């Protein structure tokens, strides 16, 4: 007859601890691998907009970002933006510059295309449509969710690249051309891949689609 050996109290506690550790490790891994797990995706069809013709829907890895455009503030910039959106130019374009919880930038149509990324030049690419003049509005407040056109260090160099800020940026006021503001989806933007070592991202996330609501 085999004699059963009773586990001591300390051995039982160690066993329970190891089980809890395994569960915690698994849950942490699952959440990290599924970064979109707790992000609510907004369907624009379920929302009534005051100006539906000025609504654009950007689909990112974790869901939709709904943006209201401001043609009354920057008509030429918004026209360029809408032209590129309607031509599907932004589809599969990288979020090539990301500062965690502060700013994301995308829209390099030349060097930021999925499958054809040029890490040495990304951020300098153009659309082929030429640059447009800056439309600076000193009264526009760059609060969280504001969307603007990126440029070089000089004015009148806006083209296809745009940025969205994830926090208030008063220093941007009077410096960049505004084109709109995020109405829904800031949490989606906060999940876009970032890198604490650099603003420019290796193996970045991409825009799945970018379309006008109407």
TrEMBL record:
<dbReference type="InterPro" id="IPR002130">
    <property type="entry name" value="Cyclophilin-type_PPIase_dom"/>
</dbReference>
<dbReference type="InterPro" id="IPR044666">
    <property type="entry name" value="Cyclophilin_A-like"/>
</dbReference>
<dbReference type="GO" id="GO:0003755">
    <property type="term" value="F:peptidyl-prolyl cis-trans isomerase activity"/>
</dbReference>
<keyword id="KW-0472">Membrane</keyword>
<protein>
    <recommendedName>
        <fullName>Peptidyl-prolyl cis-trans isomerase</fullName>
        <ecNumber>5.2.1.8</ecNumber>
    </recommendedName>
</protein>
<keyword id="KW-0697">Rotamase</keyword>
<keyword id="KW-0413">Isomerase</keyword>
<keyword id="KW-0812">Transmembrane</keyword>
<feature type="transmembrane region" description="Helical">
    <location>
        <begin position="12"/>
        <end position="32"/>
    </location>
</feature>
<keyword id="KW-1133">Transmembrane helix</keyword>
<dbReference type="Pfam" id="PF00160">
    <property type="entry name" value="Pro_isomerase"/>
</dbReference>
<comment type="function">
    <text>PPIases accelerate the folding of proteins. It catalyzes the cis-trans isomerization of proline imidic peptide bonds in oligopeptides.</text>
</comment>
<comment type="similarity">
    <text>Belongs to the cyclophilin-type PPIase family.</text>
</comment>
<dbReference type="InterPro" id="IPR029000">
    <property type="entry name" value="Cyclophilin-like_dom_sf"/>
</dbReference>
<feature type="domain" description="PPIase cyclophilin-type">
    <location>
        <begin position="52"/>
        <end position="204"/>
    </location>
</feature>
């Amino acid at each position: 007859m085999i004699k059963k050996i009773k586990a001591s109290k300390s051995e039982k506690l160690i066993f329970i601890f190891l089980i809890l550790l395994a569960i915690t490790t698994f849950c942490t891994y699952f959440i990290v691998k599924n970064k979109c797990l707790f992000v609510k995706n907004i369907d624009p069809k379920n929302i009534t907009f005051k100006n539906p013709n000025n609504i654009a829907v950007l689909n990112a890895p974790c869901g939709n970002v709904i943006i209201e455009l401001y043609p009354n503030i920057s008509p030429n910039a918004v026209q360029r933006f809408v032209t590129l959106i309607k031509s599907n130019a932004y589809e599969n374009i990288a979020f090539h510059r990301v500062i965690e919880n502060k700013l994301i930038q995308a829209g390099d149509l030349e060097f930021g295309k999925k499958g054809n990324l040029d890490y040495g030049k990304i951020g300098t690419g153009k659309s082929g449509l030429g640059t447009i003049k800056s439309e600076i509005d000193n009264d526009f407040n760059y609060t969280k969710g504001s969307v603007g056109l990126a440029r070089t260090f000089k004015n009148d160099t806006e083209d296809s690249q745009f940025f969205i800020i994830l926090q208030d940026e008063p220093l941007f006021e009077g410096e960049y051309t505004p084109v709109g503001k995020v109405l829904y989806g800031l949490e989606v933007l906060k999940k876009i891949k970032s890198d604490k070592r650099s603003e420019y991202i290796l193996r970045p996330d991409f825009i799945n689609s970018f379309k006008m609501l109407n």
